[in-house]
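The protein record quoted in full:

***
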Amino acid sequence: MKTFATALAVTTLLLSGCAEREKVIEIRYTASPTMEVALMQEDEEGVLHRIGDTLRGVRVKVDVNDVRTSDKRRYLRVEDDRRNLFIEESALTADRRNAAQEKSMFVRTPATIIGNLETSEIAGFADKGSKLDILGCDSIREDGRVVTYKVRKGKTEGYVYGKYLVFDKASAMLRYKAEKYDPIHSAIKNPFGGGRAIGCDFYPTERVSFPDNRMPESCYSLYLNISPAVLSNIEEYIALAKQTRINTFVIDIKDNECPGYKAEAMRLYSPTNHRRAGDKEKLYRRVVKRLHEEGFYVVGRITCFKDSYFVKDHPESAITEKATGQPFKHNKAYWPSAYDRRVWHFNVALAKEAVEKFGFNEINFDYVRFPDRMTKVEDLIDYHNIYGESKVQAIQRFVMYACDEIHKLGAYVSIDVFGESANPGYTTAYGQYWPALSNVADVMCGMPYPDHFSNGYYGISKPWNHPYEILYAWGQRVQDRQAVTPTPAKVRTWVQAYNVMRHVDRNGIEYNAENVEKEIRGLFDAGLTGGYTTWLSSSNIEKYRSQADAFKIDYYAEWKRKNGR
């Protein structure tokens, strides 16, 4: 062991040498297998002491000729201040992409493994607790967190978002605030086979906001279908909207057997959709451009897991009959399985193309679910569930994947759900569990059409004839679901803009301006202030004109005044 005198002599020699040593200043970035990098300070006796930490990925200037050695480790002086700071040489890198030095990570939130970051192609899946070998990373945030890791899981290589990973398995297996949320979601029953709510992930979602894409606080929206007769008449819809408070339009991109235009994603992944689509790309471009010129927020609607044309192209992705192996037909359509990642990729690729090509502010996904009314035939069909997921897990994970990929383009994601999903106490048969989806999506778009409720629902006789009462009662239940969601989405609700269907009640009321207004007031009085979208499948301009008085009201401004906001 060196004596104090010897140490002092060595230090003096080093210090005297410093005066003659030429400074060589180079740029480095702090690097670490964890989030922090140790900062060392040299005292008057030349001894280094740890005084704190800095984040990895921080740009620093170091003098590569000013070196200290301690415990056989080399430290370089940081050329920045008067504090004699040093950082270990191995914790510095010339390439910021190498600032993350971890060799393995563990999956905290079940994650999609992306095969190609540009195309969003899916390579595989990593469940909670999985260990991933780290092969590299793409970029590091200002807070030291990695945006995307390149990983290997078994024979699968790809990319996983760093926000879903942690450094140790014990942390990966923890559930978010289990003492608070586990009792709530464990109590949810699974009588229809949709899956246990507790199997979903409830870690908070970091909410996005895009400076160049401002979503209105409350969207007052008209729906437009893909018909050329509708889209070619866009000036009439704009004129109507400008006479009202309408600030948003929802336009179909793809509905079942109704593809809007010949998208490249259709050509690549669903030739039948491409072949059946009209040559309307110029029309779409003109329509979205005109709406943006007039200051409207524009949403593109895509149906996901009800797509007969995709099944024709990819029968291996379909829900099939066990007895025949053939695609199962439900409600006059064929359904790709929501477990199948190929259909995930197709719909997200189509969404990304629409955002990049036309500038849609938001993508609205409809039919984000398994088929309904399947309980009697569940044992007769094959969903091809290769990852052993429940329905509620698969649907939540698709929404996570969609949001991750579409957010990269600066667009938002909204999800259509049945009004039933707001009911307490159970998960739905088709895999929509409100708290799990609201925790991930930007906007939840419930579809509580009054004529879809049975007589006596919520204690309301013929609810289709009482639009205010049924929407207010439904909205209160939504608020209860939002309250058990760590990071709840905005709620923008589809409202019935068509007359009561005759098979429901031949004597049902007409949905005129008065009754549409009652629906919307019921929602706002229940505190659902994210806005509304009209559901009128025909998008008939004359029907909309007849309802215009309901669209002239600024419900959000009224709600704020009433609630002292």
Residues 149 and 175 are 22 Å apart (CA to CA). Confidence is low (pLDDT under 50) at residues 1-18. The chain has 17 helices and 28 strands.
